[in-house]
Write a structure and sequence with these properties.
The chain has about 280 residues and is of the alpha/beta class. Helices cover about 40% and strands about 20% of the residues.
Length: about 280
């Protein structure tokens, strides 16, 4: 049985992402693992002062997680299991450790949209999770509901070394799990015609993903993020897959101006998976 990991800090953003994950888990009959990673608050004056004891923090966090577990158990099917982990440490490091043990279908986290995506759930931890976790991270925009499920999935592709860079197993599992329609989109922002390299790479990608019967879209747009956003809105995409790379789409999304932040403005969840 698949498992979805849901990190939480009990904030409204995290709670919304949790409810999104609950509905996803119900659709695909997956178990849920709720994870809370806490740190000891320290006041730095002349010397570091621990403000609360570790034992107090552990007890308080454990009690909140138990309450949350009971709430979630009332929302899922009887055959689904709900587990919890309460851990002292660094959020991303501990999530990676948990993922190695569980091998989840995905990690579902929220993004904090009030001030843009450069500031996200747990401070910068969603971005850090995207950069460093070896597992798929699904980022859920604030207020986003699961609705009728995931029926249309977009895959943003730059057609660079597609055999090596495309997370083919994950894409196939995702599309087949949800019975979704796959749209492969490439945004041409420089106005130049596609050369032979793009043509060759697109043929290779069709070979890799052919059994999914994807639709391919080559779009002219002056801005990559806005182009994906426009396509997602016009075509009612439920999820967009991106591949985090150095100087990549995801990096630009998080570091760009608010007007160029795909997740925040399109309200489309983003699945980030490494090649």
């Amino acid at each position: 049985m698949k498992t979805i990991i849901v990190p939480t800090d009990f904030s409204p953003t995290a709670t919304n992402a949790m409810h999104y994950a609950i509905q996803m888990a119900k659709q695909i009959k997956a178990n849920l693992l709720l994870v809370h990673v806490y740190q000891v608050p320290v006041s730095y004056t002349d010397a570091p002062i621990v403000l609360v004891s570790v034992d107090e923090l552990r007890k308080a966090a454990g009690a909140r997680m138990q309450t949350l577990k009971e709430e979630v158990e009332h929302l899922v099917h009887k055959e689904q299991k709900v587990y919890t982990e309460t851990i002292l440490g660094n959020v991303v490091d501990e999530l990676e450790n948990v993922c190695k043990k569980i091998k989840p279908f995905a990690v579902v986290m929220g993004t904090k949209g009030a001030t843009g995506l450069e500031r996200v759930l747990f401070g910068s931890n969603t971005l850090m999770a995207i950069r460093h976790l070896s597992w798929p991270v699904i980022c859920v925009p604030p207020g986003k509901k699961y609705g009728t499920g995931i029926k249309k999935i977009g895959f943003a592709c730059d057609y660079e070394k597609v055999v090596a860079s495309t997370p083919t197993p994950f894409i196939k599992e995702l599309v087949k799990t949800f019975g979704a329609q796959l749209h492969v989109l490439n945004i041409n922002s420089d106005g130049k015609e596609h050369g032979e390299e793009i043509t060759e790479q697109s043929i290779l990608l069709q070979t890799l993903l052919g059994d999914l019967k994807p639709e391919f879209h080559f779009i002219q747009h002056k801005d990559v993020e806005d182009g994906i956003n426009d396509f997602a809105i016009r075509n009612d995409l439920d999820l967009v897959i991106t591949i985090p790379k150095k100087h990549s789409l995801v990096e630009r999304i998080f570091n760009g101006t608010s007007s160029r932040q795909l997740i925040y403005h399109s309200n489309v969840p983003i699945a980030c998976v490494h090649e």
